[in-house]
DNA-binding transcriptional regulator, PadR family
Amino acid sequence: MLELAILGLLQESPMHGYELRKELTAKLGAIRAAISYGSLYPTLRRLQASGWITEASATAADVEEAPPLTSRRGRVVYKITADGKERFAELIAQTGPETYEDTGFGVHFAFFARTDRATRLRILEGRRRKVEERREGLRDVLSRAAERLDAYTLELQRHGLDACEREVRWLEELIANERSGRAPDDGGPRQDNSPPPPGQSRKEPERP
Amino acid sequence: MLELAILGLLQESPMHGYELRKELTAKLGAIRAAISYGSLYPTLRRLQASGWITEASATAADVEEAPPLTSRRGRVVYKITADGKERFAELIAQTGPETYEDTGFGVHFAFFARTDRATRLRILEGRRRKVEERREGLRDVLSRAAERLDAYTLELQRHGLDACEREVRWLEELIANERSGRAPDDGGPRQDNSPPPPGQSRKEPERP
DNA sequence: GTGGCGATGTATCGCTCCGATACATCGGCA
DNA sequence: TGCCGATGTATCGGAGCGATACATCGCCAC
Protein backbone atom coordinates (compact mmCIF):
# COMPACT_ATOMS: atom_id res chain seq x y z
CA MET A 1 0.00 0.00 0.00
CA LEU A 2 2.81 2.37 0.90
CA GLU A 3 4.41 1.55 -2.41
CA LEU A 4 1.33 2.72 -4.28
CA ALA A 5 1.03 5.89 -2.23
CA ILE A 6 4.67 6.84 -2.68
CA LEU A 7 4.63 6.26 -6.42
CA GLY A 8 1.44 8.30 -6.64
CA LEU A 9 2.90 11.25 -4.81
CA LEU A 10 6.23 11.19 -6.62
CA GLN A 11 4.27 11.29 -9.85
CA GLU A 12 3.25 14.83 -8.95
CA SER A 13 6.75 16.01 -8.10
CA PRO A 14 10.11 14.74 -6.82
CA MET A 15 10.50 14.87 -3.07
CA HIS A 16 12.78 13.89 -0.24
CA GLY A 17 11.75 11.61 2.62
CA TYR A 18 10.60 14.16 5.15
CA GLU A 19 8.54 16.04 2.59
CA LEU A 20 7.07 12.79 1.33
CA ARG A 21 5.92 11.93 4.81
CA LYS A 22 4.21 15.28 5.22
CA GLU A 23 2.43 15.02 1.89
CA LEU A 24 1.45 11.47 2.68
CA THR A 25 0.00 12.63 5.97
CA ALA A 26 -1.95 15.41 4.28
CA LYS A 27 -3.29 13.17 1.56
CA LEU A 28 -4.07 10.13 3.67
CA GLY A 29 -4.77 11.88 6.96
CA ALA A 30 -8.39 10.79 6.79
CA ILE A 31 -7.63 7.11 6.75
CA ARG A 32 -4.49 6.50 8.75
CA ALA A 33 -2.10 8.07 11.18
CA ALA A 34 1.17 9.60 10.02
CA ILE A 35 3.37 7.11 8.25
CA SER A 36 6.37 5.89 10.22
CA TYR A 37 9.91 6.38 9.00
CA GLY A 38 10.41 2.76 9.89
CA SER A 39 8.11 2.01 6.97
CA LEU A 40 9.00 4.88 4.70
CA TYR A 41 12.75 4.50 4.32
CA PRO A 42 12.83 0.73 3.81
CA THR A 43 10.08 1.11 1.23
CA LEU A 44 11.99 3.83 -0.60
CA ARG A 45 14.96 1.51 -0.66
CA ARG A 46 12.87 -1.28 -2.07
CA LEU A 47 11.37 0.96 -4.74
CA GLN A 48 14.82 2.12 -5.67
CA ALA A 49 16.15 -1.44 -5.89
CA SER A 50 13.27 -2.30 -8.20
CA GLY A 51 14.02 0.67 -10.39
CA TRP A 52 10.68 2.42 -9.87
CA ILE A 53 12.35 5.50 -8.41
CA THR A 54 15.79 7.08 -8.58
CA GLU A 55 17.81 9.03 -6.11
CA ALA A 56 19.12 12.47 -6.93
CA SER A 57 21.18 14.04 -4.18
CA ALA A 58 20.45 17.71 -3.63
CA THR A 59 23.76 18.41 -1.97
CA ALA A 60 25.81 19.33 -5.02
CA ALA A 61 24.10 22.60 -5.83
CA ASP A 62 23.08 23.46 -2.29
CA VAL A 63 26.29 23.06 -0.41
CA GLU A 64 28.82 23.26 -3.20
CA GLU A 65 31.28 25.54 -1.49
CA ALA A 66 31.08 24.63 2.19
CA PRO A 67 30.68 20.95 2.92
CA PRO A 68 34.02 20.54 4.63
CA LEU A 69 34.80 18.96 7.97
CA THR A 70 31.46 17.94 9.29
CA SER A 71 29.94 14.98 7.60
CA ARG A 72 27.18 16.98 6.00
CA ARG A 73 24.48 14.59 5.01
CA GLY A 74 22.62 15.93 2.05
CA ARG A 75 18.95 15.50 1.52
CA VAL A 76 18.06 12.74 -0.84
CA VAL A 77 15.49 13.67 -3.44
CA TYR A 78 13.54 10.81 -4.97
CA LYS A 79 12.11 10.92 -8.45
CA ILE A 80 9.81 8.48 -10.20
CA THR A 81 11.09 6.66 -13.31
CA ALA A 82 9.23 5.66 -16.45
CA ASP A 83 9.07 2.11 -15.10
CA GLY A 84 7.72 3.54 -11.88
CA LYS A 85 4.88 5.25 -13.71
CA GLU A 86 4.03 1.98 -15.39
CA ARG A 87 4.14 0.23 -12.05
CA PHE A 88 1.81 2.85 -10.56
CA ALA A 89 -0.68 2.44 -13.38
CA GLU A 90 -0.60 -1.30 -12.85
CA LEU A 91 -1.09 -1.07 -9.10
CA ILE A 92 -3.85 1.51 -9.30
CA ALA A 93 -5.87 -0.56 -11.76
CA GLN A 94 -5.47 -3.95 -10.13
CA THR A 95 -7.95 -4.90 -7.43
CA GLY A 96 -7.53 -7.68 -4.91
CA PRO A 97 -9.14 -8.46 -1.56
CA GLU A 98 -7.06 -5.89 0.27
CA THR A 99 -8.27 -3.18 -2.09
CA TYR A 100 -11.52 -3.25 -0.15
CA GLU A 101 -9.96 -3.22 3.29
CA ASP A 102 -9.96 0.05 5.24
CA THR A 103 -6.43 1.15 4.41
CA GLY A 104 -6.27 -0.30 0.93
CA PHE A 105 -9.53 1.32 -0.07
CA GLY A 106 -8.48 4.66 1.35
CA VAL A 107 -5.23 4.71 -0.57
CA HIS A 108 -6.90 3.71 -3.82
CA PHE A 109 -9.61 6.31 -3.28
CA ALA A 110 -7.05 9.03 -2.63
CA PHE A 111 -5.75 8.46 -6.16
CA PHE A 112 -9.12 8.21 -7.87
CA ALA A 113 -8.27 11.32 -9.84
CA ARG A 114 -5.72 9.16 -11.64
CA THR A 115 -8.00 6.15 -11.96
CA ASP A 116 -10.36 5.42 -14.83
CA ARG A 117 -14.06 5.38 -14.20
CA ALA A 118 -14.57 1.64 -14.65
CA THR A 119 -11.96 0.88 -12.00
CA ARG A 120 -13.41 3.51 -9.69
CA LEU A 121 -16.81 1.86 -9.91
CA ARG A 122 -15.36 -1.59 -9.37
CA ILE A 123 -13.56 -0.43 -6.25
CA LEU A 124 -16.51 1.49 -4.83
CA GLU A 125 -18.80 -1.48 -5.31
CA GLY A 126 -16.28 -3.92 -3.86
CA ARG A 127 -15.87 -1.69 -0.85
CA ARG A 128 -19.61 -1.40 -0.44
CA ARG A 129 -19.94 -5.17 -0.46
CA LYS A 130 -17.21 -5.46 2.14
CA VAL A 131 -18.77 -2.89 4.45
CA GLU A 132 -22.18 -4.48 4.02
CA GLU A 133 -20.77 -7.81 5.13
CA ARG A 134 -19.24 -6.20 8.15
CA ARG A 135 -22.53 -4.49 8.89
CA GLU A 136 -24.42 -7.79 8.71
CA GLY A 137 -21.90 -9.37 11.04
CA LEU A 138 -22.48 -6.63 13.58
CA ARG A 139 -26.24 -6.89 13.24
CA ASP A 140 -26.03 -10.62 13.84
CA VAL A 141 -24.02 -10.14 17.00
CA LEU A 142 -26.37 -7.45 18.23
CA SER A 143 -29.49 -9.52 17.64
CA ARG A 144 -28.29 -13.04 18.30
CA ALA A 145 -25.54 -12.71 20.87
CA ALA A 146 -26.57 -9.58 22.73
CA GLU A 147 -27.32 -11.39 25.98
CA ARG A 148 -23.80 -12.81 26.08
CA LEU A 149 -22.21 -9.38 25.97
CA ASP A 150 -21.96 -6.55 28.47
CA ALA A 151 -23.38 -3.06 27.98
CA TYR A 152 -20.05 -1.51 26.95
CA THR A 153 -19.31 -4.12 24.33
CA LEU A 154 -22.79 -3.69 22.94
CA GLU A 155 -22.36 0.06 22.79
CA LEU A 156 -19.15 -0.47 20.84
CA GLN A 157 -20.97 -2.69 18.36
CA ARG A 158 -23.74 -0.16 17.98
CA HIS A 159 -21.27 2.58 17.24
CA GLY A 160 -19.51 0.35 14.73
CA LEU A 161 -22.79 -0.56 13.10
CA ASP A 162 -23.70 3.10 12.78
CA ALA A 163 -20.37 3.81 11.11
CA CYS A 164 -20.94 0.97 8.65
CA GLU A 165 -24.40 2.21 7.74
CA ARG A 166 -23.06 5.68 7.18
CA GLU A 167 -20.25 4.48 5.00
CA VAL A 168 -22.59 2.39 2.90
CA ARG A 169 -24.78 5.44 2.31
CA TRP A 170 -21.71 7.48 1.44
CA LEU A 171 -20.58 4.83 -1.03
CA GLU A 172 -24.06 4.64 -2.59
CA GLU A 173 -23.91 8.35 -3.26
CA LEU A 174 -20.46 8.13 -4.76
CA ILE A 175 -21.51 5.24 -6.95
CA ALA A 176 -24.57 7.09 -8.15
CA ASN A 177 -22.43 10.11 -8.94
CA GLU A 178 -19.95 8.02 -10.88
CA ARG A 179 -22.71 6.47 -12.92
CA SER A 180 -24.22 9.83 -13.75
CA GLY A 181 -20.85 11.34 -14.59
CA ARG A 182 -20.55 13.76 -11.72
CA ALA A 183 -17.48 14.47 -9.63
CA PRO A 184 -17.79 13.81 -5.90
CA ASP A 185 -18.72 17.33 -4.92
CA ASP A 186 -20.41 18.72 -7.98
CA GLY A 187 -23.92 20.02 -7.63
CA GLY A 188 -25.35 18.41 -10.72
CA PRO A 189 -24.77 16.41 -13.91
CA ARG A 190 -22.62 17.65 -16.76
CA GLN A 191 -23.64 17.03 -20.32
CA ASP A 192 -21.67 19.88 -21.89
CA ASN A 193 -17.91 20.27 -22.20
CA SER A 194 -17.42 22.96 -19.58
CA PRO A 195 -14.66 22.73 -16.95
CA PRO A 196 -14.64 19.00 -16.38
CA PRO A 197 -15.24 17.40 -13.00
CA PRO A 198 -12.81 18.62 -10.44
CA GLY A 199 -14.94 21.03 -8.46
CA GLN A 200 -12.41 23.49 -7.12
CA SER A 201 -9.35 21.38 -7.82
CA ARG A 202 -6.55 22.63 -10.00
CA LYS A 203 -5.45 19.06 -10.75
CA GLU A 204 -6.49 17.19 -13.83
CA PRO A 205 -9.18 14.73 -12.80
CA GLU A 206 -9.12 11.86 -15.29
CA ARG A 207 -6.26 10.43 -17.28
CA PRO A 208 -3.37 12.75 -16.63
CA MET B 1 -3.18 -5.53 22.35
CA LEU B 2 -3.87 -9.14 21.43
CA GLU B 3 -2.38 -10.15 24.74
CA LEU B 4 -4.88 -8.03 26.62
CA ALA B 5 -7.81 -9.28 24.59
CA ILE B 6 -6.89 -12.94 25.04
CA LEU B 7 -6.40 -12.62 28.78
CA GLY B 8 -9.71 -10.81 28.99
CA LEU B 9 -11.60 -13.51 27.18
CA LEU B 10 -9.93 -16.39 28.98
CA GLN B 11 -10.95 -14.74 32.22
CA GLU B 12 -14.54 -15.54 31.33
CA SER B 13 -13.91 -19.17 30.47
CA PRO B 14 -11.18 -21.50 29.19
CA MET B 15 -11.10 -21.89 25.44
CA HIS B 16 -9.14 -23.42 22.63
CA GLY B 17 -7.65 -21.44 19.75
CA TYR B 18 -10.43 -21.66 17.23
CA GLU B 19 -13.08 -20.76 19.78
CA LEU B 20 -10.94 -17.90 21.03
CA ARG B 21 -10.74 -16.49 17.55
CA LYS B 22 -14.50 -16.60 17.14
CA GLU B 23 -15.14 -14.92 20.47
CA LEU B 24 -12.49 -12.34 19.67
CA THR B 25 -14.22 -11.63 16.38
CA ALA B 26 -17.59 -11.29 18.07
CA LYS B 27 -16.29 -9.02 20.81
CA LEU B 28 -14.01 -6.87 18.68
CA GLY B 29 -15.90 -7.11 15.40
CA ALA B 30 -16.70 -3.41 15.56
CA ILE B 31 -13.10 -2.30 15.62
CA ARG B 32 -11.03 -4.75 13.63
CA ALA B 33 -11.25 -7.60 11.16
CA ALA B 34 -11.00 -11.19 12.30
CA ILE B 35 -7.76 -11.95 14.10
CA SER B 36 -5.25 -13.99 12.13
CA TYR B 37 -3.96 -17.33 13.34
CA GLY B 38 -0.56 -16.02 12.44
CA SER B 39 -1.01 -13.62 15.35
CA LEU B 40 -3.09 -15.78 17.64
CA TYR B 41 -0.94 -18.88 18.04
CA PRO B 42 2.39 -17.13 18.52
CA THR B 43 0.74 -14.89 21.13
CA LEU B 44 -0.72 -17.89 22.95
CA ARG B 45 2.75 -19.38 23.00
CA ARG B 46 4.17 -16.19 24.41
CA LEU B 47 1.52 -15.96 27.09
CA GLN B 48 2.17 -19.55 28.04
CA ALA B 49 5.91 -18.99 28.24
CA SER B 50 5.29 -16.04 30.53
CA GLY B 51 3.05 -18.14 32.74
CA TRP B 52 -0.09 -16.08 32.22
CA ILE B 53 -1.99 -19.01 30.77
CA THR B 54 -1.72 -22.79 30.96
CA GLU B 55 -2.48 -25.49 28.49
CA ALA B 56 -4.91 -28.27 29.37
CA SER B 57 -5.51 -30.81 26.67
CA ALA B 58 -9.18 -31.61 26.35
CA THR B 59 -9.45 -35.32 25.85
CA ALA B 60 -11.96 -38.02 26.73
CA ALA B 61 -13.09 -37.13 30.25
CA ASP B 62 -13.15 -33.36 29.83
CA VAL B 63 -15.39 -33.54 26.86
CA GLU B 64 -18.10 -35.51 28.57
CA GLU B 65 -18.72 -33.01 31.29
CA ALA B 66 -18.67 -30.07 28.92
CA PRO B 67 -20.11 -31.41 25.68
CA PRO B 68 -20.79 -28.29 23.63
CA LEU B 69 -20.62 -28.99 19.92
CA THR B 70 -17.27 -30.65 19.83
CA SER B 71 -15.96 -34.12 20.20
CA ARG B 72 -12.86 -35.79 21.54
CA ARG B 73 -10.20 -34.17 19.47
CA GLY B 74 -6.63 -33.24 20.14
CA ARG B 75 -7.65 -29.73 20.95
CA VAL B 76 -5.63 -27.57 23.26
CA VAL B 77 -7.67 -25.69 25.83
CA TYR B 78 -6.08 -22.60 27.35
CA LYS B 79 -6.85 -21.41 30.84
CA ILE B 80 -5.81 -18.22 32.56
CA THR B 81 -3.60 -18.46 35.66
CA ALA B 82 -3.61 -16.33 38.81
CA ASP B 83 -0.57 -14.48 37.45
CA GLY B 84 -2.48 -14.00 34.22
CA LYS B 85 -5.35 -12.35 36.06
CA GLU B 86 -2.91 -10.02 37.73
CA ARG B 87 -1.34 -9.26 34.39
CA PHE B 88 -4.74 -8.50 32.90
CA ALA B 89 -5.60 -6.12 35.74
CA GLU B 90 -2.28 -4.38 35.19
CA LEU B 91 -2.74 -4.06 31.43
CA ILE B 92 -6.33 -2.91 31.65
CA ALA B 93 -5.48 -0.14 34.11
CA GLN B 94 -2.34 1.16 32.46
CA THR B 95 -2.73 3.78 29.76
CA GLY B 96 -0.10 4.78 27.24
CA PRO B 97 -0.21 6.57 23.90
CA GLU B 98 -1.47 3.50 22.07
CA THR B 99 -4.41 3.25 24.45
CA TYR B 100 -5.93 6.13 22.51
CA GLU B 101 -5.21 4.75 19.07
CA ASP B 102 -8.07 3.15 17.13
CA THR B 103 -7.33 -0.46 17.95
CA GLY B 104 -5.96 0.10 21.43
CA PHE B 105 -8.95 2.17 22.44
CA GLY B 106 -11.36 -0.37 21.02
CA VAL B 107 -9.83 -3.24 22.94
CA HIS B 108 -9.76 -1.29 26.18
CA PHE B 109 -13.35 -0.19 25.66
CA ALA B 110 -14.48 -3.75 25.01
CA PHE B 111 -13.34 -4.61 28.53
CA PHE B 112 -14.75 -1.54 30.24
CA ALA B 113 -17.06 -3.79 32.23
CA ARG B 114 -13.91 -4.98 34.00
CA THR B 115 -12.39 -1.53 34.33
CA ASP B 116 -12.87 0.89 37.21
CA ARG B 117 -14.64 4.14 36.59
CA ALA B 118 -11.63 6.40 37.03
CA THR B 119 -9.72 4.51 34.37
CA ARG B 120 -12.72 4.48 32.07
CA LEU B 121 -12.92 8.25 32.29
CA ARG B 122 -9.20 8.67 31.74
CA ILE B 123 -9.36 6.53 28.62
CA LEU B 124 -12.48 8.18 27.21
CA GLU B 125 -10.98 11.62 27.69
CA GLY B 126 -7.65 10.61 26.22
CA ARG B 127 -9.39 9.17 23.22
CA ARG B 128 -11.46 12.30 22.80
CA ARG B 129 -8.34 14.41 22.83
CA LYS B 130 -6.76 12.18 20.23
CA VAL B 131 -9.78 12.29 17.93
CA GLU B 132 -10.04 16.06 18.36
CA GLU B 133 -6.46 16.45 17.24
CA ARG B 134 -7.14 14.32 14.23
CA ARG B 135 -10.24 16.38 13.50
CA GLU B 136 -8.26 19.62 13.68
CA GLY B 137 -5.67 18.20 11.34
CA LEU B 138 -8.35 17.38 8.81
CA ARG B 139 -9.95 20.81 9.16
CA ASP B 140 -6.59 22.43 8.55
CA VAL B 141 -6.06 20.44 5.38
CA LEU B 142 -9.56 21.21 4.17
CA SER B 143 -9.26 24.91 4.77
CA ARG B 144 -5.60 25.58 4.11
CA ALA B 145 -4.54 23.02 1.52
CA ALA B 146 -7.80 22.41 -0.33
CA GLU B 147 -6.62 23.98 -3.57
CA ARG B 148 -3.66 21.58 -3.68
CA LEU B 149 -5.87 18.51 -3.60
CA ASP B 150 -8.25 16.95 -6.10
CA ALA B 151 -11.97 16.49 -5.59
CA TYR B 152 -11.72 12.83 -4.56
CA THR B 153 -9.06 13.43 -1.95
CA LEU B 154 -11.13 16.26 -0.56
CA GLU B 155 -14.18 14.06 -0.40
CA LEU B 156 -12.16 11.52 1.55
CA GLN B 157 -11.10 14.17 4.03
CA ARG B 158 -14.66 15.37 4.41
CA HIS B 159 -15.84 11.87 5.14
CA GLY B 160 -13.03 11.40 7.65
CA LEU B 161 -13.82 14.71 9.29
CA ASP B 162 -17.45 13.73 9.62
CA ALA B 163 -16.45 10.45 11.28
CA CYS B 164 -14.24 12.35 13.73
CA GLU B 165 -16.99 14.76 14.66
CA ARG B 166 -19.37 11.90 15.22
CA GLU B 167 -16.94 10.02 17.39
CA VAL B 168 -16.25 13.08 19.51
CA ARG B 169 -19.97 13.51 20.08
CA TRP B 170 -20.27 9.82 20.95
CA LEU B 171 -17.39 10.13 23.42
CA GLU B 172 -18.93 13.26 24.98
CA GLU B 173 -22.08 11.32 25.67
CA LEU B 174 -20.21 8.40 27.16
CA ILE B 175 -18.17 10.72 29.34
CA ALA B 176 -21.29 12.51 30.55
CA ASN B 177 -22.87 9.17 31.35
CA GLU B 178 -19.83 8.03 33.27
CA ARG B 179 -19.80 11.20 35.31
CA SER B 180 -23.45 10.89 36.15
CA GLY B 181 -23.09 7.21 36.99
CA ARG B 182 -25.10 5.77 34.14
CA ALA B 183 -24.24 2.73 32.05
CA PRO B 184 -23.87 3.33 28.32
CA ASP B 185 -27.44 2.42 27.47
CA ASP B 186 -29.30 3.11 30.69
CA GLY B 187 -32.23 5.44 30.57
CA GLY B 188 -31.53 7.44 33.70
CA PRO B 189 -29.17 8.28 36.54
CA ARG B 190 -28.44 6.09 39.55
CA GLN B 191 -27.81 7.68 42.90
CA ASP B 192 -27.81 4.53 44.97
CA ASN B 193 -24.90 2.13 45.38
CA SER B 194 -26.19 -0.72 43.23
CA PRO B 195 -23.82 -2.43 40.75
CA PRO B 196 -22.46 0.36 38.53
CA PRO B 197 -22.61 -0.24 34.79
CA PRO B 198 -24.05 -3.51 33.54
CA GLY B 199 -27.28 -2.55 31.83
CA GLN B 200 -28.82 -5.85 30.72
CA SER B 201 -25.66 -7.89 30.90
CA ARG B 202 -25.60 -11.17 32.70
CA LYS B 203 -21.88 -10.83 33.27
CA GLU B 204 -20.52 -9.46 36.49
CA PRO B 205 -19.60 -5.88 35.65
CA GLU B 206 -16.80 -4.75 37.96
CA ARG B 207 -14.08 -6.74 39.69
CA PRO B 208 -15.13 -10.34 39.22
C1' DG C 1 -20.98 -47.83 2.46
C1' DT C 2 -18.33 -44.46 0.72
C1' DG C 3 -16.86 -40.46 -1.23
C1' DG C 4 -16.76 -35.75 -1.06
C1' DC C 5 -17.27 -31.37 1.35
C1' DG C 6 -17.62 -27.70 4.53
C1' DA C 7 -16.72 -26.69 9.30
C1' DT C 8 -13.47 -27.36 12.89
C1' DG C 9 -8.85 -27.27 14.47
C1' DT C 10 -3.51 -26.38 14.99
C1' DA C 11 0.48 -24.45 13.15
C1' DT C 12 4.32 -21.82 10.45
C1' DC C 13 6.51 -18.54 7.12
C1' DG C 14 7.46 -14.30 4.94
C1' DC C 15 6.09 -9.89 4.76
C1' DT C 16 4.53 -4.98 5.92
C1' DC C 17 4.44 -1.63 9.00
C1' DC C 18 4.97 0.64 13.54
C1' DG C 19 7.22 2.89 17.62
C1' DA C 20 11.39 3.94 19.75
C1' DT C 21 15.66 5.58 19.17
C1' DA C 22 19.83 7.84 17.46
C1' DC C 23 22.09 11.37 15.29
C1' DA C 24 22.94 15.68 12.53
C1' DT C 25 21.79 20.40 10.66
C1' DC C 26 19.15 24.62 10.45
C1' DG C 27 17.03 29.18 11.62
C1' DG C 28 15.63 32.15 15.14
C1' DC C 29 15.58 34.42 19.42
C1' DA C 30 16.68 35.19 24.33
C1' DT D 1 26.35 32.58 22.79
C1' DG D 2 23.67 29.00 23.78
C1' DC D 3 19.47 26.70 23.47
C1' DC D 4 15.34 24.93 21.07
C1' DG D 5 12.18 23.33 17.82
C1' DA D 6 11.79 22.13 13.01
C1' DT D 7 14.00 19.62 9.46
C1' DG D 8 16.22 15.58 7.91
C1' DT D 9 18.06 10.46 7.37
C1' DA D 10 18.36 6.05 9.22
C1' DT D 11 17.98 1.38 11.90
C1' DC D 12 16.07 -2.17 15.07
C1' DG D 13 12.89 -5.20 17.40
C1' DG D 14 8.51 -6.68 17.39
C1' DA D 15 3.33 -7.01 16.36
C1' DG D 16 0.16 -8.56 13.35
C1' DC D 17 -1.42 -10.25 8.67
C1' DG D 18 -2.31 -13.31 4.59
C1' DA D 19 -1.17 -17.47 2.51
C1' DT D 20 -0.48 -21.98 3.18
C1' DA D 21 -0.33 -26.71 4.94
C1' DC D 22 -2.36 -30.45 7.05
C1' DA D 23 -5.57 -33.31 9.83
C1' DT D 24 -10.22 -34.59 11.73
C1' DC D 25 -15.27 -34.31 12.18
C1' DG D 26 -20.24 -34.62 10.87
C1' DC D 27 -23.27 -35.09 7.25
C1' DC D 28 -25.52 -35.78 2.99
C1' DA D 29 -25.69 -37.55 -1.87
C1' DC D 30 -24.84 -41.28 -4.66
Remarks:
- Confidence is low (pLDDT under 50) at residues 59-73, 188-208 of chain B.
